[in-house]
Amino acid sequence: MAAVSRRTLGRVKILLTGAAGFIGSHVAEALQAAGHDVIGFDLRTGTDVRDDAALDGPLGRVDAVVHQAAKVGLGVDVADLPDYASVNVYGTAVLLAAMARHGVARLVLASSMVVYGEGAYDCAGHGRVRPGPRAAEDLDRGAFDPRCPRCGAPVTWAVIDEYAPMDPRNAYATTKLAQEHLAANWARETGGTAVALRYHNVYGPRMPRDTPYAGVAAIFRSALEAGRAPRVFEDGGQRRDFVHVRDVARANLAALGRGEPGSLTAYNIASGEPHTVGEMAAALAGGRGGPAPVVTGDYRLGDVRHVVASPERARGELGFAAEVSFAEGMTEFATAPLG
Ligand code: UD1
């Protein structure tokens, strides 16, 4: 196996799962541009991570696996549970077992900020708190901000770092957290090195268009393309970190030579430039020349209010900092092709 130093990375042979997807295709481009050899795996092109026999050939020839293949989105209802578990949990388990068989000791895993659930908040009386799900009666009367779970006082949002407790709130989040745990098990038992990249809200060219599983940037972009106004839920003040897909691809490249043998290390992958959903809608509508967003006051019961990332650990340990600004990225995305 080629030696992969922690700091400088030579040419590496990589199995990239999900290579035909939105994020995976950008990761493939970044890895190839850096001179690495990439073997792509993707359900859409007929290669499935759940297929042990199909993995044996490529895993005999690679030094690292970059695992992007996943069923994404929030799901529609409980009928989706078996498919999430099969693709995301079982698929990762099969892949890790096959990596162990072939002595492939390095993994970069696509994880998600959804493992945190609601973001972090500060209460004047109780310091850092993690509110539970918001009540329908509060949302019905337009009280969108969570309150202190101990005293009920208003709270202010704070950045969330990698040490926050896990609180997965839907099938997708649960399976992403299970992937992290399985990868940590694999690392501990084999001495392998696992790096989990907790992507915040990824957007950019080739983002899949509007489906029940799509993120808000794709939904707004699809609406604008059809000449419809983006429909902004709640009061539009909910905050996210919108991170450009080319920056996410660069983060995967940065993660390849890092991490600690025998363990999994997790990083927020974010722009460090939080914006509200209302601001994002306005930026996209502006970039296309309208129609202007409509703030509807509607809500989705499972949604969290603010998730604002601390990008510091990735900056310090991966040397990763986003390069695409919100203004630049949204202007490009306003007219970029969707997947
Ligand atoms: C999203 C992804 C999640 C991913 C995470 C990090 C989905 C459905 N969610 O979670 O899988 O792991 O980013 O990348 O893919 N909203 C509107 N109008 C709409 C739709 C949504 O205002 O038409 C609002 C929602 O109420 C919410 C915010 O936009 O407040 C973000 O929604 P969304 O992108 O769906 O979910 P995230 O929780 O950010």
**Overall helicity:** 25-40%
The sequence of SSEs as H and E is EHEHEHEEEHEHEEHEEEHEEHEHH
Shape: globular
Q: Summarize model confidence as the mean pLDDT.
A: 95
Question: What is the total tally of β strands?
Answer: 15
Catalogue the unreliable spans: 1-7
Strand order of the largest sheet: 2-1-3-4-8-13
Report on the structure:
The chain is α/β, with parallel strands linked by helices and 339 residues long. The protein has helices spanning 22-33, 52-59, 81-102, 136-140, 171-190, 216-225, 245-255, 277-288, 312-318, 326-335, and strands at 13-17, 37-41, 64-67, 106-112, 120-123, 127-129, 155-158, 193-199, 201-203, 231-232, 239-240, 242-244, 263-269, 275-276, 294-295. 35% of the residues lie in helices and 18% in strands. α1 packs across α7. The model is unreliable at 1-7 (pLDDT under 50). Residues 72-74, 112-114, 172, 199-202, 214-216, 219, 231-234, 238, 240, 277, 300, 303-304 line the site of uridine-diphosphate-N-acetylglucosamine (UD1). Residues 72-74, 112-114, 172, 199-202, 214-216, 219, 231-234, 238, 240, 277, 300, 303-304 line the site of uridine-diphosphate-N-acetylglucosamine.
